Amino acid sequence: MSFVEVERNDGLMVVRLNRPERMNSLGTEMRNLLADAWCEFRDSKDLEVAIFTGAGRAFCAGEDMKESVEKGRVGSSTESAQRENPYNDGTLDKPVIVAINGFAMGGGFMLTERADLRVAVRGATFQSSEAKRWLLGGHSHGVANNLPHAIATEVAFAFRFTAERMYELGYLNRLTDADQLMPVAREMAAHLLSLPPASRVNTLHMTRAMRGRVSDELEAYAKLLHNHGALSDRVESRKAFAEKRKPNWKGWENPGDRERTPKFRAAGK
Q1: Is the pTM higher than 0.85?
Q2: What is the end-to-end Cα distance of the chain in Å, rounded?
């Protein structure tokens, strides 16, 4: 059984995460297989539209934290980080529809965000988990999706959102019952395939250019804050999750570090 299943038919490619027993969490093998699938989609002369979905009760639960605990560090493996993945890089010139069949958490939330069109089942759950895992990054979700500041703040602080609320906020294009998820996604794909190729590609590039982005100044600020605090808390958050217990936060290597946070931006260091 492959962790990523791929179907190809009449110009359409379906990429399905297939690790339901682990809620399609992103381990090294899953990341590598996804990179291969998206490179194939990019390079194919026959495949023009993709549907990205998952098997089981989750679209993707994000980082495989059990693997992270075993490695003793967070993030992609060196091998995965070095692999080209045009979906993650935003370099595909072909549209991707994400069909969200359940939980979309952390890195799984980010995978839905990178799609061009989004359809989800009623009752699906979304959460940007960075703040729970000693990571900074949730702020970018609000910017990329042009969410109001109060909503973007709620996202960044790892509150959970239902699919119904995400639809009301304009994040989702369609909301469906579970048995209609793939039919609706395929209907959207058929519409895209009916468009002239130049219209499809040019419209895609223009609409992507309209997306919000974090300024270079704020990206530099985020980089400074990313390593601010007790770095041991990164692994502690994952150990606590794996052991189903409350985290034992250290918080700060030096208690005085808390006072440095607002000074970073003003001082530029």
Answers
A1: yes
A2: 49
